[in-house]
Recover the amino acids of this structure.
């Protein structure tokens, strides 16, 4: 609900600039497709356009939603798209970029600049097996205009690999830390840098890992402050979050 | 480890400006009290000085640590301090401010400015029972220099209360959302604003709430992006985090 | 056990109107098929006939049970029927309607009216991925004679979509709210309407969702009253329940 | 948000009958007490006035809230009030009725009728140890105008006790079933009656009961339809719910 | 419900030997005390009289129930009675025996034989800390007429202690094995004897024991057959069960 | 370890009737196949021969073990054998009986009597979907010589079906109750009969059933005594247990 | 069971050097106190004498057991002894040393050497709040003859503190790492040293720590090899384990 | 980070023996392959070279990493390699040994001795189904130079099988105990031997086993000391650990 312009809206009704029906329509800013109600107002409310979560949606549904979004915004991202679905979608929508590792589809209007903000965010990742989640984070942040530096396979079993890259990590605007197994990397990075960390537990591991529960609890209980956490394997959420921090910092300038 | 100045450190050794022993000392920047090793280097590493977590420490131990910190930094915060412990500590250290609701002790050097950054962060809280956690978040953010706006008891059972304050929340630099029970407030706010949200689940509730588990899972699984989560009842962590975002934004300017 | 007519039963025995053996038979009102004992007395006890839960039953078993039920009642519903099983069953039993989304098979006697009660119940659903469960609820309520209004994809990430339809939801006799992920929609609707809500958590989500646990806990702990909950993905149970409320209201008139 | 009168509201603005400021005020119908924002609009939205949840609130806070509610509504209920708190509150507010078993405080305006609806709801309870929760349910339903019949200690270990009262239970408008331990009573009652059942698991039990988890899971997984569930020990929620069903039925007539 | 004599009952009604009212009364064999409905028919149904579970009942309530039971049966047992409650009850009911370790009160009619069956059951217990649960099992079995042999502190850390007593354990009619911590004793005994074992996990332990969960899972997953399990700390249930086996064996003879 | 004959063993050593080496051999009564050590001494220790658990063993391994057992005992049972594995095994070992529902292979020496004990045990089962587990229990009890009566699909949603068969269930020597979903059947049967019940939770259900957890907790927390529980889906364990009770009763006579 | 000397035992029986009765006695090497069976044979079996676990034992019981142990061994340790119990025990047994932090009582025969092995083990501890568990580990290792070096409060939030002491930790024979919260310290140390690590999770933390569950899972899932884990708060187990490694190394020399 | 030679490193910088750039390089001892950063410094830090965890890595990635490791160390081990992946890898790298049961690939330089230490470690395993995990442990220990004795299928259901091999187990330098289901074997062995035990719970089991949780909790809560635990199914971790103990003992000599 475009609550932020309630004043303006009411003012316009009073002044007869818009009819009551028009005012009501303003309150329902979405496109109704039956199976979905695309939120065409989200960018103005939350700073970023709606992102298509591909899991459990058919290629046909995704195509319809992405096309609708292309009319409203210059940057369209879809996540959790497997390869076969991606193929079908790309046949219908030109100029999409598919990232196999991250399982994302991305479209940017040809006149839209690639990067919108100065500086960069970074994505730090503990192990080779966590790459898919790390890439989802990186691609998401890039989709919303943030340059991204990637530091992969720098887990604490060989902590010198992390120290080697520490200076670059410290200069980021915000940092995503991706780790499975015991997720200790988040705490270690948290004790060493001064920009906000978004920790992403991954479901990588076995046995008493419980599909990422071990890393999740580890990150939530970190002894280092300056860390917040998103859902297990939620690379998208973390990439979105650091890009949001990045954007708001840029808006300050 | 002052890894960021490794270059400089090695350069100085080479140039004979410092001895090897001095270099080694630089690598061990803490004060050893036996029961604790106070991290006197943290502010330079992570942007904020060490905070004393009072749970499980005696009044005597806390006094010793706070005094050590007063020599190194201008802002000293201790959390999880119950009333009787607070009394004992305040007898030994003058000029402490005790916040009963938040259970925090705070000291600021007399020459230190109260607020360090422009704008404000805000703390939004679902119910009256979540106040202690919300206050811990607010006091922490203030301790590190952020002005704070509080919006309490605006849970989704009466969602118009939230809408009433929405404009102010949207203008914040970052937002803490504190909620117990089912924690739905975080998702609702997440769909309405464009600054980063740190969600704090509280242990308020009963039965299948499982000491905050319900709210924690709710927040981690939020359908709204732009939300990250800290541990149950971790008001401190959330306040610290939004202040860190606030600080970094200010540094941009 | 037709306990409610125990008086009558005993009276008849005393008056010699029925033999002891007949009386005993009355106490065992079911059809014994070996693998199943179809409860031919359920409609008189609980208001609705037995529904066939298709999971783990063979097509042959389902056919046998549905045919037995067709002799006793005018409305026969089978749930959790996948497409291939449905095909086999429809070859043996004419006039069945298969709903692919809901995975239900439904048969209504040709002389039976479609809708039995005035007014309507409604099914509100958070996301596109929750459709299967929402449809199971809707189809079930319709099977038992309730007109149903559907409001899909109105989750709290774009809460204005819900407000758009609120007037219609408020006029329902009872409301099913279906939501996965964090399930916040139930609480939000609960704070806005005055008819009884049955919340259905779905297993839609990933990571710390734990196959619907997050939404289930969220709904059980809702800060809004007027909400009760059924099992994860139990669209059938919710549709049955609102239709039962609807039926009892109609019986009042 | 009084969304249901949005049309009217906008119409009035257009016609100049109310100012924009007044319209905005309409959107914020609550009383701000700092620590709480009393929802004075709830009765018109959800059918019943706000109920005071006493846990974690001081006697002083409860007094203030109850007094505010007395000005807006004729029936004020507070739950989870222990004996000592109740004493303090009753000193400040006359004419309150305290129910020790249910731990509720209740006030009804002297001109308000005790019961508002015809017929009755019933509360069925498995064991003596579940009485407190059962009474909370019963008192809540009574507070909102429903006559209540109580059937206590009729658990399945001696199932003939249940059958003895079955006729009366079947005639209720809706039924609360309260059970701890394994919660089997809900399923058994569910197979025997035709009015909607709200099951309340209690935390009564030990060992692998896990504070009511066993009964909760049992009720959620009931093989009998016509059962929905509320949180563990949530007698209030169940009483509220059956009274809401009762009220809506009465409104039909 | 005296279902087992349904034939007889109906026959009697037919023959006019009992009235319909009398027949109905037969179906409701309990004593209604308001707060409790004492099951005076249980012994004829299940072989043993009702046992009073003392937890959550007042001394007054227990006295009333025990007195009612004394009129119906020769052996009355109450469990989970703490010392102070026991004192109050013993003031009102003479000839009760209180077992401090087991926290049971027991009464046997003066003309009733102490032991009713030949042979014995045995209670095997892993550690000194499990004694209370073991004693509850032993006292319960004795209360129902079984002689009991006790073998305590024979856990697997010193397995030779178990072997020392093995011959006596093998000669028992049935065996209770009580163990906390990891509960391994049940599996070891299960591989060595040929009478039925009832395993009782206790809540003794700490950390990842989770109040008996470790021992419970261990016993349920035993690699030795011939073991069934009761709830954590449920010494009563195990004692009852082995005495039931013992009784049925005796009835064979 | 043939501990029960330790006396005899030592006596024989002393008397020179067996050598030390022979005595040592007596202590290791198993057949070593490398991948398995078949326990040829189990029947004398525990009353029944070793049963082959087929899960995770190859057809070849099972053949080898079953052949070894055929040399030692007259009754060989293998459980958890899927159809294709069963085919392979039956090609190598003649006279095996495969039960598809129960997934068991059974062999009885041609001179061995089918049933060894008088009377019968019974297997009571809640729903059609629980049949596989119920059959595993029934086949196991038969394998060890117990006649079995089966009562399937008599769950509590239509409790009159249970009452119809109650007399027969009461006359059994011991009773297996198999139930999924909420497992309430065990408690209901437990309140009505006087022979020992072994409850088997099944993994039938969905959502908050958690693969049988709901039924397991329900059975462990039963308010009816006379019930013990085995692992989820452990039909074998329950059949073994009731047959063991049956055997020991017969030995009394 | 002195199984290791079975040969010898049988030989002696054969040679008539001991009687059968004596041989049987050898198989039961414990002291029977009724409430406890003290394992006087443990030192010869497992390398260390039995340790008294004080939780849930009375002062009187502990005194009796310790006195029995003093007759058999030169080093007696009791753990989980609170201060008041310690006082009572020390009145009865002279020369005991009580460690308040570790809550242990220790006695060493006056002629017994304090340390038995060369080199040392070390105990590394993350935070001040973990001290009690760390001390229990340290005291236990010392009780069995290992010199111990302690490095406390060196958690990963200030990882330079750990590096400062790393050389000494690397020279240990084995290392105990004690950590609460997210337990990341174990993984970090595991990546840096080459002696075996025993990780002890502590229950220090709050919220989603779940009484040590977070640290436990973290340690079990460590990405660094060379780490094994004991139960939450089990300082004793860890101290025992490193001392056992230490002892066996010394025996090599 | 080669922290142990920090002194030396700084000394060399001072003396101009290495440049600052070289010193920095020393701090980053890994080979960067993009997707992985192979830890070429691990052997000097932790005593054993890096092991390749095959799960979630492609054959190509594994080949690249193994080849890199072959240049640095004489013993290369890869775990969790399924048969088809193994085939691909063996085509590219000669002289690899694939163990199907353990799913490991192993390479030893032709001039490297097979066994490095005297004596042996042993792997004790409860059931045939646990073989894969047991073999992973055995193969790992052998890979690092320890001779291994295997004792398989000696679970507690037939405990005489364990006693038969006890003397050999007691003579080991360290012992791995592998068990699924209830994991009781660890406790039993723990009470009988005097070398350090590493317990490995396996995910073998069903129902309330919860993929190894039962065995894991059992082992963590063992009543026998001298046991530490690794993750469920972590045969590698256990084999590594006992070999590490073995190595350190050998270094003593």
């Amino acid at each position: 609900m475009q609550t932020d312009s309630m004043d303006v809206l009411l003012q316009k009704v009073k002044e007869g600039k818009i009819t009551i029906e028009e005012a009501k329509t303003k309150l329902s800013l979405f496109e109704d497709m039956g199976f979905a109600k695309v939120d065409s107002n989200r960018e103005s409310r939350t700073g970023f356009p709606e992102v298509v979560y591909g899991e459990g949606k058919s290629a046909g549904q995704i195509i319809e939603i992405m096309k609708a979004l292309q009319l409203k915004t210059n940057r369209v991202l879809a996540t959790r798209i497997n390869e076969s679905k991606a193929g079908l979608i790309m046949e219908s929508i030109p100029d999409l970029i598919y990232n196999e590792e991250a399982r994302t589809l991305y479209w940017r209007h040809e006149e839209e600049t690639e990067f919108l903000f100065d500086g960069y965010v970074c994505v730090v990742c503990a192990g080779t097996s966590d790459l898919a989640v790390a890439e989802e984070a990186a691609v998401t942040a890039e989709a919303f205009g943030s340059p991204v530096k990637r530091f992969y396979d720098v887990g604490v079993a060989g902590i010198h690999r992390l120290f080697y890259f520490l200076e670059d990590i410290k200069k980021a605007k915000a940092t995503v830390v991706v780790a499975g197994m015991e997720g200790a990397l988040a705490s270690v990075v948290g004790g060493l840098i001064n920009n906000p960390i978004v920790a992403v537990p991954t479901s990588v591991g076995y046995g008493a890992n419980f599909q990422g529960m071990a890393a999740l609890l580890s990150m939530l209980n970190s002894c280092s402050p300056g860390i917040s956490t998103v859902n297990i394997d939620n690379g998208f959420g973390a990439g979105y979050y650091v890009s949001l921090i990045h954007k708001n910092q840029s808006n300050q300038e």
User: Anything to note?
Assistant: Confidence is low (pLDDT under 50) at residues 1-5 of chain D. The CA atoms of residues 34 and 61 of chain D lie 11 Å apart.
